[in-house]
């Protein structure tokens, strides 16, 4: 009789999460291959019934009870260790993930009325890293363990051919010198794929843009625009990207880390404006530092506006806040979104005048942009651009 192994996804228990934990699926797969009984635990009860317990969490804010009385528990993940903690043993790290680990949980949620589509990441995708590491060493990023990008695994290592697609957690894929070999492997699966961490647009060149524009990609292409000081480079790379791809493109906009005042709000709006001009979507990512800002509500409403494309594409920030007021249940009171906008505009009218009325439809310089590929030539309207 094999050992009883308990697996705890702390993020799932505390907050719920749309993403399965890859490390835990690998641990489960490894122990099942040894004949052990592996269970996904949805509470912290009866932990003594298991020979070994493995707990992982991605987010530091995820809470867990005091487990100091137990000596058979192993902890991992960026929620416990800033750099992710000790690496998994090689035979576990390179084991096929157990994609069935969450089946019971997902089935129960669906039986309770939850939409199956919400659990698509659990059901439909093979998950893995083809490369690891990043040389950027961004102060706000947990990914500082390695100084370079290196090959981590082949696609076959984590590919479940019965699943619809692939998503990847690579830290900085385009920083790998043999990125094209990996891309060939992904293309050979004939399955749609997506880099969920985003791609480093600063490393984009003609060859990378061309190859990426030709693959079977799942959903939006994801990049990042963290520092306004890099605007010239980002604009150059967006212009290059748009000369090859008309596919929906989204850039993460990080904010609220170094400062969370009116200057950071201006910085955020400036980046939003640039993305509007290129017909791309922003996704505002707020660091927890913003929660102590007196403009916390402003950050919240900007994120609500930007992170819902159906509103962002049709409304200015002002119109979005006004729409919230229009649909506010109590017509005798002012809703939080509209009040935040009024208060900020009163204090900083010059910021509101410059940015509150920007509209995607008006600012988008690529609204009538078409790409016609003829060999190595790319045409924009009547202008011929030679892409060598």
Structure write-up:
It is a single chain. The chain is an alpha/beta fold and 388 residues long. It has three domains: 4-93; 124-197; 220-388, no CATH class. It has helices at 10-14, 22-33, 90-93, 103-111, 120-123, 179-188, 206-214, 231-242, 262-277, 296-306, 309-312, 317-326, 336-347, 349-355, 360-363; strands at 4-9, 37-40, 52-56, 73-76, 125-128, 131-132, 150-151, 165-168, 193-195, 221-224, 249-255, 281-286, 371-374, 377-380, 383-386. The strands form five sheets. The protein has a four-stranded parallel sheet. It has a three-stranded parallel sheet with strand order 5-8-9. α9 (262-277) links the parallel β11 (249-255) and β12 (281-286). α12 (317-326) crosses α13 (336-347) and α13 crosses α14. The longest helix has 16 residues, at 262-277. The protein starts with a strand and ends with a strand. The model is unreliable at 374-388 (pLDDT under 50).
Global Rg? 23 Å
State the distance separating the first and last CA atoms: 63 Å
- As a percent range, the share of helical residues equals 25-40%
Structural class: alpha/beta
Tell me the β content.
Answer: 15-25%
Taken in chain order, the helices and strands follow as EHHEEEHHHEEEEHEHEHEHEHHHHHHEEE
- Placed side by side, the strands forming the largest sheet appear as 2-1-3-4
How many helices? The count is 15
Number of strands: 15
Overall tally of structural domains: 3
How much is the average pLDDT?
Answer: 92
Largest sheet: 4 strands, parallel
């Amino acid at each position: 009789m094999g050992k009883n192994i308990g697996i705890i996804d702390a993020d799932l228990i505390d907050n719920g999460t749309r993403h399965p934990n890859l490390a835990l699926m690998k641990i489960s797969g490894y122990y099942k291959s040894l004949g052990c009984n592996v269970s996904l635990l949805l509470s912290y009860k009866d932990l003594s019934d298991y020979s070994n317990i493995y707990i992982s969490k991605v987010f530091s804010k995820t809470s867990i009870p005091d487990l100091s009385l137990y000596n058979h528990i192993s902890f991992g993940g960026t929620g416990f260790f800033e750099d992710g903690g000790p690496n998994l043993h090689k035979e576990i790290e390179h084991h096929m993930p157990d994609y069935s680990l969450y089946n019971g949980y997902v089935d129960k949620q669906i039986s309770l009325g939850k939409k199956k589509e919400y659990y698509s990441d659990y059901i439909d995708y093979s998950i893995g890293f083809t490369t690891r590491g990043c040389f950027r060493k961004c102060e706000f990023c947990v990914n500082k363990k390695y100084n370079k990008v290196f090959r981590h695994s082949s696609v076959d290592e984590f590919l479940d051919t019965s699943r619809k697609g692939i998503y990847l957690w690579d830290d900085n894929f385009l920083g790998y010198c043999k990125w094209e070999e990996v891309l060939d492997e992904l293309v050979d699966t004939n399955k749609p794929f997506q880099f969920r961490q985003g791609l480093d647009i600063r490393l984009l060149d003609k060859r990378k843009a061309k190859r990426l524009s030709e693959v079977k990609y799942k959903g939006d292409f994801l990049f990042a625009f963290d520092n306004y000081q890099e605007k010239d480079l980002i604009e150059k790379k967006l212009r290059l990207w748009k000369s090859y791809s008309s596919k929906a493109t989204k850039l993460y906009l990080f904010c609220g880390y170094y400062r969370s005042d009116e200057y950071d709000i201006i910085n955020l709006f400036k980046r939003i404006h640039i993305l509007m001009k290129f017909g791309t979507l922003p996704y505002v990512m707020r660091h927890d530092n913003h929660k102590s800002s007196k403009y916390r509500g402003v950050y919240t409403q900007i994120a609500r506006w930007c992170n819902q494309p159906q509103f962002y594409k049709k409304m200015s920030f002002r119109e979005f806040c006004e729409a919230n007021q229009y649909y506010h249940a109590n017509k005798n009171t002012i809703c939080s979104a509209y009040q935040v906008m009024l208060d900020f505009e009163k204090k900083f009218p010059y910021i509101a005048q410059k940015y509150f009325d920007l509209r995607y439809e008006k600012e988008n310089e690529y609204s009538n942009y078409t790409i016609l590929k003829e060999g190595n030539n790319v045409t924009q309207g009547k202008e011929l651009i030679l892409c060598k």
